[in-house]
């Protein structure tokens, strides 16, 4: 089987964090290549201030995801991220950080995504901070990407824009309305996989991918 699995996501999306175990399971499938495509859903016009109502909504949603998936959303995240009124709900910086990794160490982008998610949802870190993201990438040994994040230049931002546009085009073509989205492409056929079962059974996508 030679299949490319395109994963459309947003780094701040709780449901995408909940899908991480399913994504990790897919790494075990021989002949399957995973391509990450951030959608920019919560960046630009999709970014917003963190107010009391939105924080309460996010925490309620996060608790549901935790029950379904076993993924951890800590009290530290609740207090230091959702409770911080100076911090925007903005995935722009993290999306740029992942693009920097895709340009310099593409095989490690999923590893970087997991580290970014953990920094937010478990460690309660402000991952909208460029210096923090640069330090996080450096701690993973992704030094080139870390340097790029210290001062994002026009080339990096353009590469990021292109990736977001690719994801948006693919979502439009498939009629996808939200994330996460998993798209299997065999070269002859391209189809969107069903995600309803992945939260309780991370290996549910493997059968779909093999069938594709």
TrEMBL record:
Annotated InterPro entries: DSBA-like_thioredoxin_dom (IPR001853), Thioredoxin-like_sf (IPR036249)
Signal sequence coordinates: none
GO MF terms held by the record: oxidoreductase activity
Residues covered by the DSBA-like thioredoxin domain: 8-186
Protein name: DSBA-like thioredoxin domain-containing protein
């Amino acid at each position: 089987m030679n299949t490319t699995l395109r994963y459309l996501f947003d780094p701040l999306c709780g449901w995408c964090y909940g899908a991480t175990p399913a994504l990790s399971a897919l790494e075990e499938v021989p002949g399957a290549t995973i391509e990450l495509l951030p959608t920019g859903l919560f960046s630009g016009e999709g970014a917003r201030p963190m107010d009391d109502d939105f924080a309460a909504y996010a925490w309620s949603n996060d608790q549901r995801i935790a029950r379904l998936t076993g993924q951890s959303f800590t009290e530290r995240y609740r207090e230091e991220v959702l409770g911080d009124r100076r911090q925007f709900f903005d995935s722009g910086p993290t999306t740029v950080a992942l693009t920097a990794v895709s340009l310099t160490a593409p095989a490690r982008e999923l590893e970087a995504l997991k580290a970014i998610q953990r920094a937010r949802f478990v460690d309660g870190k402000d991952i909208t901070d460029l210096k923090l993201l640069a330090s996080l990438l450096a701690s993973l040994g992704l030094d080139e990407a870390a340097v790029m994040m210290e001062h994002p230049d026009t080339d990096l931002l353009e590469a990021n824009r292109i990736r977001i546009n690719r994801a948006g085009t693919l979502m439009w073509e498939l009629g996808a309305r939200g994330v996460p989205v998993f798209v299997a492409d065999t070269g002859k056929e391209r189809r969107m996989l069903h995600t309803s079962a992945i939260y309780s059974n991370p290996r549910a996508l493997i059968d779909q991918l093999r069938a594709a």
